[in-house]
Amino acid sequence: MHELAIAESIIKTVLDEAERRNLGPVKKIAVRVGALTDVVPDALRFGFEAASADTELEGTKLEIKTIPVVGKCRNCGKGFNVEEHIFICPVCESFDIEMTTGGELDIEYIEADDRSI
Amino acid sequence: MAAKIKIEKKILSENDKIAAAIRERLHQNNIVSLNFVSSPGSGKTSLLEKTIGYLGKDIKIGLIAGDVQTENDANRLKAAGGEIVRPVVTGGACHLDARMISKALENLDLEKIQMLFIENVGNLVCPSSYDLGEDMKVVLMSVTEGDDKPLKYPAMFRRSSVMIINKLDLLPHCDFNMETARQNALKINGKFKIFEMSCRTGDGLDEWYSWVKNPKI
Ligand SMILES: Nc1nc2c(ncn2[C@@H]2O[C@H](COP(=O)(O)OP(=O)(O)OP(=O)(O)O)[C@@H](O)[C@H]2O)c(=O)[nH]1
Ligand SMILES: [Mg+2]
Ligand SMILES: [Zn+2]
Question: Where along chain B do its domains lie?
Fold first, then answer.
């Protein structure tokens, strides 16, 4: 269950940011999770609920956006959606594929009262 | 009123920062580092025992053995001739993270080693997100686990540079198709360097030894 550890990292990062920016209570956290990360959204949500209990983020909404895996052929430059983890160029059949999205584990934004405004 | 505040930060940015610092320190000391990952029991410790037995005379190797509860693997590596072995007991955590490695390196003299081998916790899921500052991940699977392993754990296989198929001696007892396993792995990671071996019989180990002395992809 590394989702618990991931959730703890989210909580720490958000609390640090909220303090640094002098924000009020955080209402929502939006994260991006790539489809090729082995992070299961439901497990992450569960981990977040468990790890945020009794912290300032208890009850904060966690929005998880799943990002599909997109590849780019290093041989011919073609960009394509990677289906079923098959990293093979649909045009030239090259196996030399760069992964452009799908590995994300990012905090995109939060919603909170901005006391500085 | 609640405002939307852009953060745009990696969730594991703290781990990544520590990993980057480790990588820089290792490179400053010209140390090549490999992070060995697999399911429980595929043969990580067995391969490291063989490898230090063979290379240990010529190359000074530092070893970090990650385990959930015991120091068994660290003790096995010492018994196999490992001179500089650091156990990391995660106490339940299913993966090593960069902070644990950083701590293990605190009392390890980097001027004395040329290579660093890290045995991760036996798990093909959780370690994939955690950069440890290594040069490459080496993923092991054994023929008893089925030839569809790469498809089931694509994140780990995509992030690894080398794949080892171990326990070749058991091939006659398994319905494991070598060609299928290779194809499945190459679909996910077309640049895989693949080795087949048996740590039991020693089959295929020579090829591994000659590569691992100077690992390049
Ligand atoms: N038949 C056979 N057995 C092997 C081979 N390599 C390892 N084993 C056995 O498989 C078992 C597990 O090997 P380990 O090297 O401990 O595996 P590991 O990946 O380090 O396991 P964990 O650290 O628990 O994840 C041991 O009993 C080994 O002796 C092999 O090539 N053939
Ligand atoms: Mg082991
Ligand atoms: Zn192409």
Answer: 2-213
Q: Which fold has domain A2-114?
A: hypothetical protein PF0899 fold (3.30.2320)
ipTM field: 0.92
Which pLDDT tens digits describe chain A residue by residue (117 residues)? 689 999 999 999 999 999 999 999 999 999 999 999 989 999 999 999 999 999 999 999 999 999 999 999 999 999 999 999 999 999 999 999 999 999 999 999 999 987 766
- Chain A: give the shortest CA distance to residue B154, in Å: 7
CATH number of B2-213: 3.40.50.300
Q: Shortest Cα distance from B191 to chain A (angstroms)?
A: 7
Could you tell me if the CB of B123 is within 6 A of ligand 1?
A: no
Report strand pairing: B32-38 vs B2-10: unpaired
> Parallel, antiparallel, or unpaired for β B2-10 and A105-114?
antiparallel
> Residue holding tokens 């018994």?
B79
In terms of pTM, does the model score above 0.90?
yes
Q: Could you list which residues have their CB under 5 Å from ion ligand 2?
A: B 44-45, 73
Q: Which ligand is nearest to the CA of B42?
A: 1
Domain definitions of chain A by residue range: 2-114
